[in-house]
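Troubleshooting log. The previous structure file for this entry was overwritten by mistake, so regenerating from the original sequence record. Sequence copied from the archived sheet and checked twice against the printout by T.R.
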Amino acid sequence: MNAAYVFRVRFRLDATGVRLDPREFETVLRVPAVAPDSDDDPDGWLFFRDNLWHGAVSDERHLRELVGNRLDVDVTSVAFAELETDTASLTALREAIGADLDEFNATNVDEVLHKYLGSSIRVTD
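Regenerated output below.
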């Protein structure tokens, strides 16, 4: 799958015995999207459902913790920017969602995509 969830992340470095200037930094974080049919992480493709709502982070504290653990820094803010995807990956995602609309309490795929990703989907090909 050639897709990634893109976040703007602000983090702080804490150091002992030295002075940092600046102490806080901003970066762009791309989290690879898991393919719906992946055996490695069968629930990983639902990352958008579990962490996003209308194109924004649904629980910032939880996601700051998740990102902070992955980066080993103190994350002070995290904001969802977009799902960056190619056409094939978006098609696979749409098919997986469509196969189980009840899981998302929705009547169609577009409703699900809007409910979780808002209008923050960018097709790159």
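The chain has a mean pLDDT of 94. Archived copy saved in two places this time.
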